[in-house]
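Hi there, hope your week has been kind to you so far. Do you reckon you could talk me through the fold, stretch by stretch? I've dropped the whole record in just underneath, so have a look:
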Amino acid sequence: MPFIGNKPTAVPLTGADIQDGTIGIADLSATGTKDSTTFLRGDNTFASAGGNNRPAFHAYLSSDFTIPNSTNTKVQFNVETFDTDNCYDNSTNYRFTPNVAGKYYVYFHTLVESGNTFDIYAKINKNGSGIAEVPAYNNGSAEGVNCFTTIDMNGTTDYLEAYVWQNFGASKNIAGSSPWKSRFGAYKIIT
């Protein structure tokens, strides 16, 4: 049926005129900068999306690493898979010293060679003191031990290191030469 009568004139909409819950971009007066890394919040301002998990690192052993009997031994993870902000020392202190304060997830996995029975402990230290420790009992086969935790770091002087202790009665080897055998890493948690 054709329209009969005068054609209505277009009138700009205002917030009160919107009945279906949609708003055109021209009707917004958001503050801030719109770009590919921001989103429009409900309070009509732009905010950065998410954040990032930096600094972060992941390191492993280039070859098998020997740990003596009944001695806390720092594991010298010397190959970096990645180190986003150059915060992991893979040649001298073998420690992670993040340059951004915040909460961090830290993980350490070690694979110890087989041989008879013995106890093994994987430990994560912060500033020289233990913050996480996981024991395992080796029954003669190769034993993998996972140790992980979350920790607050000050972004200046705090550092993390990975240690192993075992009581085989003689030295034992931690498996190296592959990123999946024994590894150490951490990343900042987005909060």
Q: What stands out?
A: The two ends are 60 Å apart (CA to CA).
